[in-house]
Every structure is written in C-alpha cells, then in structure tokens.
C-alpha cells in the first residue's frame, strides 16, 4: 500500500486518487493541513516545500507529483525486489 500526502484543495491529488482508484491501487491519504508531522515529512523530501501529492512506497521511497504510470512502475519494481 502507498501513502499519499495531500490537501483537500489539491486538484493534482484528486486526479491521482481517481486514477489509483481506477487502477485498483490501495492507498492511504494523509492531509498535511491536518497533520503537522506529515507536513514536516513532505517538506523533508521536497526541499522545504509542502508539495503535494507526495507519495511514499512500501520500500520507504517517495515521489512528488507522480503520474499514474510512475506509481505503477514503482510498485512493480518494489514487488520485484520483495520477491
């Protein structure tokens, strides 16, 4: 499962959520405006910026504003290394 750091107003986040829903990709959403620690994490992986969507993967890596293709490819790579 991936974690998507998001905000309520982020259109890029809404688009990626709907794409992951269509692809059947399980994810958890964390709103960085409601969770200061999540906001700190997002800033730590984005050069001090609160850029969303930021997605973290089971291997601990993160991507900022990824495409659905990038998410699928990363999940496949993580699954391959776990096997």
UniProtKB/TrEMBL annotation:
InterPro entries, per the entry: GlrX_actino, Glutaredoxin, Grx-like_ET, Thioredoxin-like_sf, Thioredoxin_CS
One Pfam family hit: Glutaredoxin
Gene Ontology annotations of biological process type: cell redox homeostasis
Residues in coiled coil: none
One Gene Ontology molecular-function label: electron transfer activity
Glutaredoxin domain segment(s): 2-57
Protein name (database record): Glutaredoxin-like protein
Organism of provenance: Stackebrandtia nassauensis (strain DSM 44728 / CIP 108903 / NRRL B-16338 / NBRC 102104 / LLR-40K-21)
